[in-house]
Design a protein that fits this description.
The chain has helices spanning about 20-25, 45-50, 65-75, 100-110, 130-145, 160-165, 175-185, 210-230; strands at about 5-10, 35-40, 55-60, 85, 115, 160, 190-195. By secondary structure, it is α/β, with parallel strands linked by helices. It has a single domain (about 5-230), classed as Spore Coat Polysaccharide Biosynthesis Protein SpsA, Chain A. It is globular and about 45 Å long.
Amino acid sequence: MGKVDIKVIIPAFNEEDAVAKVIRDIPEDLVSEVIVVNNASTDQTEKAARAAGATVLNEPFRGYGSACLCGINYLSRGPVMPDIVVFLDADYSDHPEEMSRLVGPIIEGSCDMTIGSRALGNRENGSMTIPQIFGNWLATTLLNIIYGANFTDLGPFRAIRYSSLMNLDMQDQTYGWTVEMQLKAAKLKLPYIEIPVNYRARTGKSKISGTIKGTIMAGYKILWTIFKNLAWNT
């Protein structure tokens, strides 16, 4: 098998202090392109990402899923489709240098998707709030009961074979993105595994877990997505 083409999508909203660190720690010899989707930022996120060497796309409709969909649409228009797509956050809470652990099983052919599990890895004190921890537990418990899955986390650091990603027909534009991907993978019986990853306190204040409104809205959207997709079928 020849060299595997891996591309990275990083949704970013007001992450001028962190995004360059994320790009810097991505193994250069592993990926062919780093795509930062500037999601209606009002700071210097776009400038910082470009200076760090990333391809920068601008998505004016604010929402985590919207940014991810923008990145996927960009890939689908390319002359050559990548083999693997990696998603991670722009806040430097993930450890990009662990990327090889996520893509390894896909390259070897043992699965089509890997989820970086913070529940199985080491979390720095204060890196996740109590509502985040409870929300992850509740969402994955429901996924496991309703969809017959075996998840421990909705971790944003994940990798997936490009062809499998396209088969999932991702739609969510906001907080339900990660859970939509996992429940659809479970319904399609897509082979996946969880990889323990390390997680640290993010750079700057969270736009979701850092506010009561954000936490409530994210929790509502995740639960709504779980039940809405009961009827989803390819």
